[in-house]
Structure formats: structure tokens, C-alpha cells
Amino acid sequence: MSVFKNLPAAPAAPKKPVADTRHGVTRTDDYAWLRADNWQAMFRDPSILDPAIRQHLEAENTYMNAAMADTKDLQKTLFAEMRGRIKEDDSSVPMKDGAFAYGTSYVTGGEHPRYFRIPREGAPGDESIRQLLLDGDKEAEGKAYFRIAGLDHSSDHSRGIWGYDDKGSEYFTLRVRDLSTGEELGDRIENTGGGGAWAPDGTSFFYTVLDENHRPSKIFHHIVGTPQSEDRLVYEEPDAGFFMSVGGSLLDDFIYIDIHDHETSEYRLIPTTDLAAEPKIVAERVTGLEYSMTEGGDVFYVLTNADGAKDFKIMEAPVAAPQKENWREVVAHKPGTLILSHMAYARHLVWLQRRNGLPEIVIRDRRTGEEHAITFAEEAYSLGLSGAAEYDTDVIRFSYSSMTTPSQLFDYNMQTRERTLLKTQEVPSGHEPDDYVTRRVFAPAPDGEQVPVTLLYRKDTPLDGSAPCLLYGYGAYGITIPASFNTNCLSLVDRGFIYAIAHIRGGKDKGFHWYEDGKMAKKTNTFNDFIAAADYLNQERFTSYANIVAEGGSAGGMLMGAIANMAPEKFRGIIAAVPFVDVLNTMLDDSLPLTPPEWPEWGNPIESREFYGIIAAYSPYDNVDTKSYPAMLALGGLTDPRVTYWEPAKWVAKLREKTTGSEPILLKTNMDAGHGGASGRFQRLEEIAFEYAFAIKVAGRM
């Protein structure tokens, strides 16, 4: 029996059929009209959205508000709980760099970060020595949406670049600030990726420009004090299928141009002794060859999958001749041990790896070759390696947490192996780790693979099938969802929920093969793994099908759409945030921002009849059918350049048309935000409270 009572009539989107024929196959899309013809311009100015489309989205929001009206008090309670677990006037531990240490802080009630610095050896808690560099709350005043990309200081500490997006469309404007006076200089750089790389003398920087299709297509060199129109084009990427970014080395010797898609890499270097030099290729792009670089004095350390090193290895190359033919192995490939990232310092080489599904930090003494790992005891946990801002150091920084252990920040001396606890995440409203249980279990997939599932629940939660469960999944791009401390999910767990993360194929949880087995032609493994996790939790009586609410966002939203079509009877409800559900239409439209770069992940249905068929067989929008769907909530952002607003809008219209069940299909479109939702830290909590209220209502736990 539905928990949604006395709902008004749901919006019914008009059908305006549009036929499309590819590879001899004709499909008809009844809701294609929801895609604005002027979407590129609308991302910059949402007010020009077609009134008919706006009217439909607002009608959906009205219906959604009616369906969720009885959760208003619950949402306020959830928000208060989540906010109560946040130290509102929190501050980071500043990172030392030269004469200063840099950090961020928040003020009580503040939505956005404040960037500050203190003298290098100053006491971090001494407010009298803090120099405020940028006040995010002040910059956000009067804006419905505001997101800061960060503040990057020059090597001489005189200036800073900071970027902001005030539409949610991820077109960032860069500004330059005098850090000694706080004065904003006249420089204003539009349509950028959000950051820049300083030249060593602090008089110029390099940055990436996004084209009209929101792709990072050009690198420019800007001299402070000159107009953007005079900036020099450094490099233009001709292939729309590649992402591009620019950065600098710790030693200030090189500017890196990193060009890559989901399976191929290319680096180009500019020596900072000659900023006008033509970028020099390290290793030309070869399909399937991935590599990344960090500088180690007179050598580069190259992390690569070359020569069949599926889980990656680390090579060394002379700075004077870094081409691939000069790479020499220093850390061998070990099948099943995936090297995720690496860093180099004057006396040590550091890398983060995943072995047996868990992360490890490994340190090698560059002089002796001796290695050691930083180890931890819990069954499931998360690590973050932030390293250091200086090259000549023996001290790096990392963070540790688990589903039950609040985040801890450590400085680690690589020479003495001494850990110094700098900070433990405070939970002002209180948290007792011993009240909770975290477990790592394994669900058998249909093909025999064992799918890791991380669980969090209270010790007093009955494990007899009666407990509601929020089952979360992502499963794409090799992204691993960490088993980290999450204060928000405690609001569910304290209400008797089991919070579960399914570490499904498409991520790299069990090595690179785990990613390969969930992409391209093997994409359906991702969906089968998630359903297998639900089956296992039902079979082992952690919960039951009637109590599982599934959740995923973006590519995880595609997962939600797929499992809704494949096994709707196994879920009480489904939450799909900014869901990538119109996969076939999107992959057929090479004008959209992410389409060409995404072909190595999903396949190219324009050129390949085979991949047209593969994608058509699972694309959630194309496979909505006449059946009973569970209660569903889709969330979108009007200016989202990654998953465009019309994907969830079309999907919901078709679901509502086809479902034979009595449960509502809801759409919430944020008319003032993009892919990441609301930008402020408390605004974001309001969105999470809304999603959790839906889960609690659907599970009958209000």
C-alpha cells in the first residue's frame, strides 16, 4: 500500500514525437522537445529557457512538493541533526609552504569557505596572526548560486588566482588578488575550467578555456594586468574526445599540460625558464596507454600501464629526455595491487595503492630503496593522501576514517615513521563509535564474482529482515566509493536503517579489472552486481526487498534507471540524483559537452552499430516499459552541463506514462543549480535531508 495519499494529478508532458534513424533502426522519442534548442546559451543565462519547458519543470516541482508536503517537519529535523554534527566554525590545519602556512575556515552560519594564511611557524589557532585572503560568504552575497573553485597562490606568495561559478554551469570566472593588501586586481578571465598554474615569478599564469560546448579546448598564457583578449594561445586540442588541464610542478621547473580521455594519456611540458616555448610531448597518445607524471629533481616519476601493467607501475625518466623510450622501471607491476597515485619528494617516493580492496600508503627511500607501508587495523576504511606543498620535506599529510571512526588528520615523518595526530573530526552533537557496527560482506554475482558491500548499522538494529536499508551504488569511470565516515547517514542509521554501499564493477575496488568488467560491452555487469547486493542483503536477512531504497547519482543514476527496469520488484523506492538515463540519445549527440570524451567509457553508437545495439539494450530511458515501478525520486539541475536537465525530465515523463503501479514518480529540478546541486554547505544539507525524508517516508518510518 502506498504511503503517498491524496496526491493531485501528476503533470503529463505532451507527446511530440521525433523520429531518429541510425544503422537502419528507427526510434521515436515522444519527449525530445524538453531539450532546449538554445541549451548552450541557456547555461550562461537561464532566463532565456523556453517558457513551455520552464512551465513543465515548475509543474513537476509543484507536484513533487505536494507529494512531499507531509515530510516538511521531518526534513527540518533531519537538517537540524546533520547541521548539529558539523563544527560550524571549523578550520583546516594549515599546510606549510615557504614563509607561510595556508588553510581554510568557516564561520558559524557561513555557507562558503574563507581562505587564510599564517606565518609558517605560527600557532594555527591564534586568530591574531591569521591573514584573511578571501571570504567566500562575502563574495556570494546576493547570488542564488555561488561556488568557489579555490585559491591558488603564486610561488612568491604575492598574488592569488581564484575562480567562481555563479550559475551552476561550471563556466568559471578567474580573478587575481594581491595577497598582501587583499586588493582585487583588474584581471577578469571568463569561461575557464576554474583554476590556473602560476609562472614562478607570479607575474603570469596559464589557464584552460571551455568552448561553447563546455569542453576544455584551449590553454592560454595570461600576463597579470593585461586584458584577456591579449592572452597568448599556448595549445589547442583538436580532438573533442579529450579532456585537458594545466598545472605546475612542486619545484616550479615545469608547466604540465595533461591531456586524456578515459583510456589514453598525453603530457606536454613547458619549461618555466622559457614560458614561450612550444609545449614538448613526453609520450605521444596511443590508445590504451595511460600515464601521469611527477617531478623528482633530475628525474620524472611516471605512473603508467605501459607494457600490460594493468594495475600500473612506476617508471623513472631523465628530466632532460623524458620520452617513453627512456623510461626505466622502479616500482614493478603487481597484479591485483592497483597503484592509484604517486608523489615524489627530495628523499622519498610515495604512492597510494589498493590491495585486497583496501587502500595503503607506501613510501620508498629514494637513496636506499627501502620500502614500508602505513597500515591500519579496521575491516573497512578510507584513506586520503594530501602529501605536502613543498619538495624538500620528510613530512607528508594523510587522512583516515571508517564508517564508524570520524576523520583523523595526520602528519607523517617518512624518515622516522612517526605519526602526529593533527586533528580529529568533531561531532558537536556527539558520536559514540561503539554504538555502531561496520562490516564488509561479499555478494555473489550471477557470473560468480564476489561483490564487496560495506554496511553500517547500529548495534541494536534487528537483523531479521525488518530493517529498512539505503543501498547506494555508483559503478563507473573507475571511481571507488570509499568506506569513509559520513555524519549525514547517521540520521538514517539512528532510525534503524542499514546503510550499505555496493562496490560494484565499473569502479576499481578490486583492481583495474573490476573497472574493465563494468564498462563498454560489459556495462550490464554493473547493474547485475547491484541487484546481487540487494539479493544478498535480502537472503541474509539484513533487510528485505520490501525495505530497500536504492540510491545513486550521475552515472550512478544510470544504474538506478537500469535496475528499475530490470528488477523493480526488489526495491521499495529509488532515488536518482542528476541521473544519466538518456544514454543512447546523449551518446549520439556529439555537440553535448561530455559525449566525445565519454565514448571510451560507453562506446560510440554513431560509428558502431554494435555499440548502438549494446547501449540501446540497457539505456534506461529507452527501456522503460509497461510494468509496476516503485516510488521514485529524480533530481536534476537546470544548468547542469554534465547530465543535462532534460534527461531526468524526459525519463520521469516516460516512467509516469508507462507505470502500472500506484507509486508516484517525482521530479525535483533545482532551477538555480547544476550538477553538484546547491553550493553552500548548509544548502547542500537541505537537499540531503529532502532525499533522506523521501527514503524514510517510502520505507514507512515517519
Automatic annotation (TrEMBL):
Pfam entry (one): Peptidase_S9
GO MF term set: aminopeptidase activity; serine-type endopeptidase activity
PROSITE patterns, per database record: PRO_ENDOPEP_SER
Domain Peptidase S9 prolyl oligopeptidase catalytic: residue ranges: 484-700
Highest taxon of the lineage: Bacteria
Peptidase S9A N-terminal domain span: 12-424
InterPro entries recorded: AB_hydrolase_fold (IPR029058), Pept_S9_AS (IPR002471), Pept_S9A_N (IPR023302), Peptidase_S9_cat (IPR001375), Peptidase_S9A (IPR002470), Serine_Peptidase_S9A (IPR051543)
Class of enzymatic activity (EC top level): hydrolase
The EC number(s) this enzyme carries: 3.4.14.-
Family under the similarity heading: Belongs to the peptidase S9A family.
Protein name: Dipeptidyl aminopeptidase BI
Source lineage: Bacteria, Pseudomonadati, Pseudomonadota, Alphaproteobacteria, Hyphomicrobiales
